[in-house]
Amino acid sequence: MSKLLPGVDQRFCVCHLYNNFRKIFPEKRMKELMWKAVTTTYPQAWEKEMQEIKN
User: Residue 23 and residue 44: Cα distance in Å, rounded?
Assistant: First the structure.
């Protein structure tokens, strides 16, 4: 990818990531936690939400 598009970051679609997580964590709570994490606008808030997912 870096040879085709130098200087461009590779990102992942949250929907695709969630579909993979859903196979292991089927409860709706995971979806809610994941969306809270990906919609935060501050690094500190993201860290807080990620910690909630880990717990």
Answer: 28
CA pair distance 30, 53, nearest whole angstrom: 7
Residue 38: which residues within 8 A CB-CB, separation 6 or more?
14
Q: What secondary structure letter does DSSP report for 27?
A: S
Do 31 and 14 touch, CB atoms closer than 8 A? no
User: Which amino acid is residue 45, in one-letter code?
Assistant: A
**pTM for this one?**
0.64
| Furthest-apart CA atoms within the chain: distance in Å | 39
Per-residue pLDDT of the chain (55 residues; tens, 9 = 90+): 677 777 776 677 888 888 888 899 888 888 899 899 988 989 999 999 999 998 8
